[in-house]
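Action item from last week, closing it out:
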Amino acid sequence: MKASGFPIWRRFATGAAVGVLAVVAVGCEGFKLGGGGAGRDREEVPEDGLLGAKLGALRYAMDHLPEEDRRFGDGDYAAYGIVDPDELHQKALVELLKDRRPPVVDASVLYNRSSNSQWIDGRPALKWSATAAKRPDHPRQAEVLVGWMHSKLINEFTTYVLEFDGDAWSVVDVLVFEPGS
């Protein structure tokens, strides 16, 4: 059976493909940055927006890493490895942070030595992780736990509170965990 010169299965397949593209385009809108504040009228951050919160927190943490933590012994760390349980987030974070120094790589290329220390090409490395969750009391904010570690003894975890203004994530608070407090 033909209509408009196309078999009926082809019309259905074409319509389904257009429908899928429309859903993907609408679903990704919450992650887009820019666009003249199109997201400013949103009441809450979509779930997929948490990748942006992770990226914002990691950038902030890397930029504000104390000088004494940027070095291992006499030299700088050879690389920062990113680990994330969400494989797509991990790949995206590595790609979005790849131009930083030291270079950012997928943490799977790091290997362990004594005390579970992280290494790459015979040089020390830091492994970074970020876990994000929307704040139930403020739907346009997220808490991101960022951790970095070289070994069991050299590591730190900090929670960052970020707010989404419709275009970008901004750090609005830093909650440092102090052992014994």
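Closing note: The chain has two domains: 1-30, 47-176.
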